[in-house]
Specification:
Elements: H1 3-8, H2 10-13, H3 17-38, H4 41-48, H5 52-59, H6 62-85, H7 92-109, H8 111-122, H9 129-148, H10 162-186, H11 189-214
Helix pairs in contact: 3-4, 3-6, 3-8, 6-7, 6-8, 7-8, 7-10, 7-11, 10-11
């Protein structure tokens, strides 16, 4: 969060961390369940145990509250993702498989944060579209940099455009992930972790097919 944004939310950021966390969890719960437009600030203050006026003293408006909560959720995602992935493999397919597995684990551990992202991406009202578009562009650029940094390009066939290859593999991974994401959120954490292993092995099989077109022959 930049200095200007931090100054805007100074009233909130000066309260004790445990109180901040309680309010943020209430906001995440409400926005995850209902999205931006249908979310109720009355429900948030009831869940957080604070007066409604206090919420707006901290954030000014529902729009600014949502943007702050979204930025907070992204920061938590990046932190958790780094913890789950650690040092990434140099091979493109192994790296994306590794990242995909970490993403599924994140859904299991933080279902409300995932739902908040999902709602923000698919149901962004016109009122906050400019701010969210800017954020998506920044996060996408940072994600591309993190994905390609230190990548081993020596295995690719001559003439293969690496950027296009990365996008192709990501699309396949996204399709597999979207097919299983509802199931990951329905089952118990223990069952979900077992499902993650199953999805990982299935994905590895699809990746072997893609390698025949993108990589040099052994």
């Amino acid at each position: 969060m930049n200095a200007t944004a931090s100054k805007k939310y100074a009233n909130f950021e000066h309260i004790p961390p445990e109180e901040q966390q309680r309010i943020l969890e209430a906001c995440i719960e409400e926005f995850a369940r209902n999205g931006y437009a249908a979310a109720s600030t009355n429900a948030i203050v009831k869940r957080a145990g604070i007066p409604k006026g206090t919420l707006f003293y901290y954030f000014g408006s529902k729009k600014d509250l949502y943007l702050y909560v979204f930025d907070h959720a992204v920061a938590r995602f990046v932190e958790a993702f780094d913890r789950l992935t650690g040092e990434l493999p140099a091979d493109l397919f192994e790296r994306l498989l590794y990242r995909g597995r970490a993403r599924m684990q994140f859904v299991v551990e933080h279902p409300r944060l995932y739902q908040l992202f999902f709602n923000a991406l698919l149901h962004t009202p016109d009122e906050i579209q400019p701010e969210m578009t800017t954020r998506y562009a920044e996060y996408a650029a940072a994600g591309r940099d993190r994905l390609t940094e230190g990548l081993d390009l020596s295995s690719f066939r001559a003439g293969v455009q690496v950027d296009e290859a990365v996008e192709l593999v990501k699309l396949v991974l996204e399709g597999i992930y979207n097919r299983y994401a509802p199931a990951l959120r329905r089952v118990s954490p223990e069952e979900a972790l077992g499902l993650v292993e199953q999805i990982t092995e299935e994905t590895r099989g699809y990746f072997e097919l893609l390698k025949t077109g993108l990589y040099k022959s052994p």
